[in-house]
Write a structure and sequence with these properties.
6-stranded mixed beta sheet, alpha+beta
Length: 274
């Protein structure tokens, strides 16, 4: 399990088994800098294990952030940046890239320190999505769905319609799926709105997209409390015929069945690299 050393707004410091990850999802504010300074100065672990500064979800770098990154480089024995193409170019122009190792993905960042990327399907991750799905569907329908036994498979359970969330964090890469048959989604729509959708494909798909966003946001909030920082990503809805275009062939899926009244749906968590 990760050990959260600091979590404020969209900035966190998380200790994993043999490395630290400082994640920044938005620009550093003055109180971020002071709290990060205090965290680094008081925690001896920063001097014992590698630190990865993950700013890969940002679009630019401010002078304050550049100054703070260089400060970390000066006081930490093993330090690297996880970046993206846009930021890497900015780091090159500012001279930072010549002074600090920069990686474009988490696996490469760990490789800098001779560490191996080992993605794990942590029970906290599974529980957070299961609990969020139950909470959202219960709030929408007034009925608590029942959860079945999770099953690990090489593919998700095939249904008519899929809500898709690309899921990325410093330790996890995969896909979250919320899948319904047309009949089950229609029944859920009726239980919420009290009438049948006149255009099942448009109204029901829009409804599924809204549910997906609620589950996504609820899950991100709960996981952040446990040290799992999920990067923001855009959810989408596709039909079964187009699902393969959105999935990696290297994923293993944990399919979690849900049922309410006589209907059912699935939450499928796909992890790459297991």
């Amino acid at each position: 399990m990760p050990n959260i050393l600091l979590s404020i707004d969209e900035c966190s410091v998380v200790m994993w088994e043999d490395y630290l990850v400082v994640t920044l999802l938005s620009h550093l504010k003055p109180h971020h800098v002071s709290l990060l300074d205090e965290c680094v100065s008081k925690k001896d672990v920063f001097k014992k294990v590698p630190t990865i500064f993950d700013c890969s979800r940002m679009t630019d770098i401010s002078p304050r952030e550049r100054e703070f990154i260089l400060k970390l480089r000066d006081i930490l024995p093993r330090f690297a940046i996880l970046s993206n193409d846009t930021l890497t170019q900015a780091f090159k122009l500012s001279g930072v890239s010549g002074q600090i190792p920069i990686a474009s993905d988490f696996k490469s960042a760990l490789h800098i320190f001779g560490l191996t990327y080992q993605p794990k399907l942590d029970v906290s991750l599974v529980n957070a999505f299961v609990e969020s799905a139950m909470k959202v569907v219960s709030a929408q329908t007034g009925q608590l769905p029942k959860v079945g036994k999770p099953i690990a498979q090489k593919s998700p359970v095939m249904m008519d319609l899929f809500g898709i969330i690309p899921a990325y964090s410093s330790h996890f890469s995969g896909t979250i799926l919320l899948s319904f048959s047309d009949a089950a989604l229609k029944a859920l729509f009726v239980s919420v709105f009290g009438y049948e959708p006149t255009a099942i494909q448009h109204e029901a798909e829009s409804f599924l997209s809204e549910i997906l966003e609620l589950i996504h946001e609820s899950t991100r909030t709960e996981l952040l409390k446990k040290g799992f920082v999920f990067y923001p990503s855009s959810a989408s809805v596709v039909r079964k015929a187009n699902l393969s275009e959105h999935l990696s062939q290297k994923q293993i899926f944990l399919n979690v069945p849900f049922s309410y009244n006589e209907n059912s749906f699935q939450v499928c968590i796909g992890v790459e690299g297991l």
